[in-house]
User: What shape does this take?
Amino acid sequence: FRRPAFLRDSAEWKILEVKRFSALAYLGSGGYSGPQLLPPFFLPAAYGAEKILDLFPLLFAIRMMVVLERK
Assistant: This one.
Protein backbone atom coordinates (compact mmCIF):
# COMPACT_ATOMS: atom_id res chain seq x y z
CA PHE A 1 0.00 0.00 0.00
CA ARG A 2 3.02 2.25 0.13
CA ARG A 3 4.40 1.38 -3.31
CA PRO A 4 4.09 3.92 -6.12
CA ALA A 5 2.19 1.42 -8.29
CA PHE A 6 -0.62 1.15 -5.74
CA LEU A 7 -0.77 4.89 -5.15
CA ARG A 8 -0.93 5.51 -8.91
CA ASP A 9 -3.64 2.90 -9.54
CA SER A 10 -5.85 3.92 -6.62
CA ALA A 11 -6.22 7.65 -7.09
CA GLU A 12 -9.78 7.65 -5.70
CA TRP A 13 -8.66 6.25 -2.33
CA LYS A 14 -6.89 7.99 0.52
CA ILE A 15 -4.84 5.92 2.96
CA LEU A 16 -5.79 6.91 6.50
CA GLU A 17 -3.73 4.39 8.44
CA VAL A 18 -1.39 1.46 7.87
CA LYS A 19 -0.59 -0.74 10.86
CA ARG A 20 1.58 -3.85 10.81
CA PHE A 21 1.30 -6.77 13.26
CA SER A 22 3.68 -9.63 13.99
CA ALA A 23 0.82 -12.08 14.75
CA LEU A 24 3.10 -14.92 15.82
CA ALA A 25 0.34 -16.53 17.89
CA TYR A 26 -2.00 -16.31 14.89
CA LEU A 27 0.47 -18.27 12.77
CA GLY A 28 1.11 -20.78 15.52
CA SER A 29 -2.58 -21.38 16.07
CA GLY A 30 -3.05 -22.22 12.39
CA GLY A 31 -4.87 -19.04 11.46
CA TYR A 32 -8.44 -19.44 10.32
CA SER A 33 -8.24 -22.86 8.70
CA GLY A 34 -4.74 -24.32 8.97
CA PRO A 35 -3.47 -26.95 11.38
CA GLN A 36 -2.35 -25.73 14.80
CA LEU A 37 1.46 -25.61 14.79
CA LEU A 38 2.03 -24.66 18.43
CA PRO A 39 0.87 -26.68 21.43
CA PRO A 40 -1.68 -24.77 23.55
CA PHE A 41 0.73 -24.37 26.48
CA PHE A 42 3.12 -22.38 24.22
CA LEU A 43 0.59 -19.72 23.16
CA PRO A 44 1.19 -17.43 26.19
CA ALA A 45 4.89 -17.36 25.28
CA ALA A 46 3.96 -16.56 21.66
CA TYR A 47 1.86 -13.61 22.85
CA GLY A 48 4.83 -12.38 24.88
CA ALA A 49 7.12 -12.69 21.86
CA GLU A 50 4.58 -10.72 19.81
CA LYS A 51 4.90 -7.77 22.18
CA ILE A 52 8.64 -7.68 21.52
CA LEU A 53 8.35 -8.29 17.77
CA ASP A 54 5.73 -5.54 17.45
CA LEU A 55 8.45 -3.06 18.40
CA PHE A 56 10.00 -3.73 14.96
CA PRO A 57 7.00 -3.99 12.61
CA LEU A 58 8.92 -3.42 9.39
CA LEU A 59 11.04 -6.51 10.10
CA PHE A 60 8.58 -8.94 11.67
CA ALA A 61 5.09 -8.04 10.43
CA ILE A 62 3.10 -10.77 8.71
CA ARG A 63 -0.30 -9.09 8.88
CA MET A 64 -1.37 -5.57 8.00
CA MET A 65 -4.42 -3.43 8.64
CA VAL A 66 -5.07 -0.66 6.11
CA VAL A 67 -7.79 1.94 6.58
CA LEU A 68 -8.93 3.53 3.32
CA GLU A 69 -11.29 6.39 2.61
CA ARG A 70 -12.87 7.23 -0.68
CA LYS A 71 -11.84 10.73 -1.82
